[in-house]
Amino acid sequence: MNPLRHGRRLAIALFCAATMAGCSPSPGTIARPTPPMSQPATTVTVPPRVVTLGHSIEARPIVLHLFGDTAVGPANTVLIFGGIHGNEPTSAGVCRELVAYLTANPDAWQGRCVAILPEANPDGLNRRIRTNKNLIDLNRNFPAANWKKTRRSSFFGGDAPATEPETKVLISLIEQNKPARIVSVHSMADPCNNYDGPGEALAERMAKHNGYPVKASIGYPTPGSFGSWAGGDKQIPVITLELPSRATTEASWKGNREALLAAVRG
Length: 266
Ligand SMILES: [Zn+2]
Fold this sequence. Notes:
The chain is of the alpha/beta class. The protein has one domain (3-23, 45-265): Zn peptidases (Aminopeptidase), CATH 3.40.630. Helix content is 34%, strand content 19%. The protein has 7 helices and 8 strands, in the order αβββαβααββαβαβα. The protein has helices spanning 3-22, 89-104, 122-127, 165-177, 200-210, 226-233, 249-265; strands at residues 46-55, 61-68, 77-81, 113-117, 181-188, 192-196, 214-215, 238-244. An 8-stranded mixed sheet has the order 1-2-4-3-5-8-6-7. Helix 1 (3-22) packs parallel to helix 4 (165-177), helix 2 crosses helix 7 (249-265) and helix 5 (200-210) crosses helix 7 (249-265). The radius of gyration is 18 Å and the shape is globular. The structure holds zinc ion. Zinc ion binds next to loops.
C-alpha cells in the first residue's frame, strides 16, 4: 500500500475519532481542579490537537488543528480553512492567528468542535501561485454539479473534478465529518462575505463584525468551486470570506477576529 495513502486514511479516521470524542463524554476527559467559588467551573475534555490529513503533490503535510469539547452535537462542528489559493497568503495567516487565539483562549471553543486548516494548498503557498503544483485551481476542482472543463488558465479546474490530492483531502474531511458550517478564507481587491447554500444568516452575522458586504455571488461564474460543491450541492452553509488583498495579515486578523469567532459560535 502507498504509505502516503495509508497515512491519509489513518489521519482522517483519527480526526473522525477525535471529533466524536469531542462530541460525547469521553473516558479521556481531563477535569481542571475545582476553581475558587467566585469563578465558574469549566471542564476541558480533549486538549487541542494537530492531525496531518494528507500530503500535497510535493509531499508537504496538510495539517488540521482541532479544538473540541464534550457534550456538543454535530450541529456545533465548524470548519475554517485558508490558503487554497497560494497567492493569497493572508488567508493562511489569519487562520494561523485563529489557531493561536483558540489555543490561548479555550473558553472560545468550550462546547464546540472547531477544525482549522490554515494551508489547504501548501505547494501553491510556497511558490506564491494561485494553483497547486499541477497548475490546477483547486477551487475549481471540486465535483460540483456545475463543474466543467475550461481552457487552461490560472482558473483551470483540471481535466476532471477531484483529481488533485489537496482537493481529495478536503472532500474526505467534509464527507466523513459533516461540519455544520464552513468558512473558506480567501483574499481579493474588494472584501466581502460571500455565501453558498443556506449561508446567508451566518454571512449577515459575520458582516456585523467585519463590515464587509454580504454577497450571494462573487460576481463571476465559479464552476467546480468549493462553495458550489459544499454549499450549493451539499447544502452546508459555506462562507467564502474574502479578506482585503492589500491588507497585512495583522490588519486582516484584527478586522476579522470577531467575525470568525461569530462563525465558531454559530
Ligand atoms: Zn482565492
